[in-house]
Amino acid sequence: MSEVLLQVQNLVKYFPIKRGIIFKREVGRVHAVDDVTFDIYRGETLGLVGESGCGKSTTGRTILQLYRPSSGRIVFDGDNLVDLQGEALRLKRRRMQMIFQDPYASLNPRMTVGEIISEPLIVHGIAKGQKAEAEVMRLLGLVGLNPAFINRFPHEFSGGQRQRIGIARALALNPSLVVCDEPISALDVSIQAQVVNLLGDLQTQLGLTYLFIAHDLSMVRYICTRVAVMYLGVIVELGNREDLYETPLHPYTQALISAVPIPDPVKEEQRQRILLSGDVPSPINPPTGCRFRTRCPLAADVCAEQRPEFREMKLGHWVACHKV
Predict the structure, then answer these.
(1) CA distances (Å), 151 to each of 2, 69, 102, 113, 116, in order?
(2) H helix intervals, the chain
(3) For the residues 194-220, what does the mean pLDDT come to?
(4) Phi, psi of 123 (to 5 degrees)
(5) How many C-beta neighbours within 10 Å does residue 231 have?
(6) What is the pLDDT at residue 21?
(7) What is the rounded distance in angstroms from the CA atom of residue 34 to the CA atom of residue 151?
(8) DSSP 8-state symbol, 76
(9) Sign (positive/negative) of CA torsion 26, 27, 30, 33?
(10) Which position among 124, 232, 248, 270 has the lowest Cβ density within 10 Å, counted as fewest Cβ atoms?
């Protein structure tokens, strides 16, 4: 994993809050993503975890330019996506796709499965007619669905089958990077493992690179190579899977890991839970200094005065904390 496919440097995404009926003026900003930096290596799966509302999905959508960033650089395969517009950006989008969270809302109910999966092929001028139909049937078989389903509508499928259709659509253009935005959170527990195993098999067959956004830490440990922990718009820790789960350095990461159930009654009985006090602050007015200081048991004066530097504590293990 020596080749970097995607570089995210000082990424910032703010959403303006405006008031007024005629002359709308900006009265505040939602700090959804605030100075995020990480790399994704070709062929790996980087997990992005954190509480709901911390900015995980916004990060993924901003990387794909579904949201244009407020500032920062997103270098994909040598090109800064922030500088691209129009046709240049459209051509670049062939190589990066997204699997959305809700399989019920992400598929057009008025289109057949064949039309949904072939749409990227037609839009980008890759295939149409019988050639596109043959490619759709191949993709359906690739994700474990019967190619005879090509003329059915989304309402005729279960949630797991719909998510497989979404995966087939994402693979239609043979991308290098796939952003998986909580692809299993809306599925039954019995189906989640099937979808995750399918993603792993497809990665092996096609050489895919994943950004896997989730809040299920057990599933992230199973599928991901490295893990980034996000809190209130910033990444507080980033490291290899085993390092982060065995020796978490940031207090927030330690609290998250302590909440993961252990499938062993003896160890589960001995597990020490770390309970955080208070609620997550509003992203409209985040705390000064360290974002986590209002709930951190180790917080000191310096945490309110200075934002902690995101530094490498050991090879490949980064953390943003004054106390580590």
Answers:
(1) 43, 38, 22, 6, 10
(2) 56-63, 86-92, 113-123, 130-142, 159-171, 189-206, 217-223, 241-246, 251-258, 265-270, 301-305
(3) 92
(4) -60, -40
(5) 23
(6) 80
(7) 44
(8) E
(9) positive
(10) 270
Cβ within 8 Å of residue 201, ≥6 positions away? none
Edge-to-edge strand ranges of the sheet holding 226-231: 96-99, 177-181, 209-213, 45-49, 226-231, 234-240, 317-320, 310-314
Q: Which amino acid belongs to residue 145?
A: L
Give me the residue label for tokens 């440097």.
9
Give the C-alpha separation, 127 to 220, whole Å: 36
Q: Which tokens hold the place of 92?
A: 């670049």
Which of these, 261, 204, 218, 258, lies nearest to 47 by C-alpha position? 218
Q: Which of 143, 165, 141 is nearest to 153 (CA)?
A: 165
pLDDT over 90 for what percent of the chain?
72
Confidence of residue 228 (pLDDT cuts 50, 70, 90): very high
Residue 13: beta bridge partners? 33
Percent share of the chain, pLDDT over 70 = 99
What backbone phi and psi angles, to 5 degrees, belong to 219?
Answer: -70, -35
What value does the mean pLDDT of the chain take?
A: 91
CB hemisphere CA count around 94 (13 angstroms) = 12
Helix (H) or strand (E) run with residue 211 in it: strand 209-213
Distance CA 311, CA 319 (A): 6
CA distance 33 to 240: 22
Q: Check pLDDT > 80 for residue 270.
A: no
Q: What is the DSSP letter of 261?
A: -
